[in-house]
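Input.
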Amino acid sequence: MLTHQAIDRRRWIQAGASSILGLGMSHLGALRAEGAKQPIRGSFGRAKSCIFIFLSGGLSQHDSFDMKPQAEDQIRGEFHPIATATPGLQICEHLPMLAQRSQRWGLLRSLTHPSNDHSAGHHIMLTGRSTLPSGFNPNAPTRLDEPSIAAIAGVQLAAPNNLPTALCLPESLVHSTGRVIPGQNAGQMGPQHDPWLLQASPFDNQSYGAFPEYSFDHQQRGKPDPRVFGVPQLGLGADWATGRLADRLGLLQSLNHRKDQIEQITSNQSLDRYRAQALTLLTDPKLQRALSISQADPKQLERYGNNSFGWSLWMARQLVGMGIPMIQVQLGNNETWDTHGNAFPHLKDKLFPPTDRALSALLDDLQESGLLDETLVVVAGEFGRTPQITLLEQHYKLPGRDHWGAVQSVLFAGGGTAGGTVVGKSDPRGAYPEELPVTPERFAATIYHLLGIPPSAHWMDASDRPHAIYHGEPITELFA
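Output.
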């Protein structure tokens, strides 16, 4: 379902739990007008959309995109590097499809920030701010948080035909204890600017990965995975009523029959254009098709992988085709990539296969449709993993790596970035940046720059105070 945080009912139309009406879309939806007044330099504004793929838990750089085959055993790990289509570039042997497509993506191997904590790391990477706000609560999102990159992009950009500007799928990021992880929403901008959440994947505190075929449990407790990937149902809350439409509207089918009346309401009742967008969205058949796995071409689903990772990236691709500018995709909830133990079998057998396939299919699909040049794809987590392999015997049978904010690898593709490029370098142990250390502020600035958000742009907090969007320079070394 599409959900959004509740907003003062005097200001917004009341919506039920499964409603996407009254989501409080931004009144600050600045287009690229300001950027259009400035000379377009290099890659500025090359991306019309961004798919931000987040690997909650933290991908090990040593075991994926920054292998250290010359290091000692306790650092290099069990996997071997393989050549890619880019001369001199090697990645993990268990990412063969991405290796074949390396000319379509580039790597940043030197992103660094100061935290090894999951909650802080999520906030840092999802917002692009290395310093935590005063009053930061690691146990839940608050309105003291910095706004997420997705929320800022949603405020600044526009989508065609009254569609949403920022959307997250297939789930909210939730810790195994059930607490929601901070950094995902609009924070100080207010709940009306939270990205739309497309909830298609249920939460289970002992189930991880690309279910059903690649689900697993980090601690191998043997509990069945009860999760089922659901097709979102777009509907209105039972209490929705206004003006000439006094009866309750509950189902999408009913809305489709009453579209003319809805359009009359949006013009006669002085609803702002964002609530009008929500009403239009409910009757858009293209969106319904984009969110319906059951209506998809089975060959396409097979190409992406018939699992939650594949389905999520397939939906993101459909939404790009509709012109949605910002789509954040969580490839795994409950800190799926938190490989403290049993790391090597779980990466090899459970995590890398569906990720390699789904991400490769996404890049192929975008390339073949001519959309890759104008679609930025970014893959990152909240941090990397420690150089040293450890064994926590009280929890795991086999070893893994712990949290490590000091360096991680980030993948960029399309949208004005150069494929076959490696930027930055970690030291021989993969512990710290050796060349071109890059902060989360520069990471965020790169996304904003490629999406055409000008450096002079700002966002407004709940007290209408302006705040700068850029807190660093874009990583120009990545640009085509």
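The chain has a mean pLDDT of 85.
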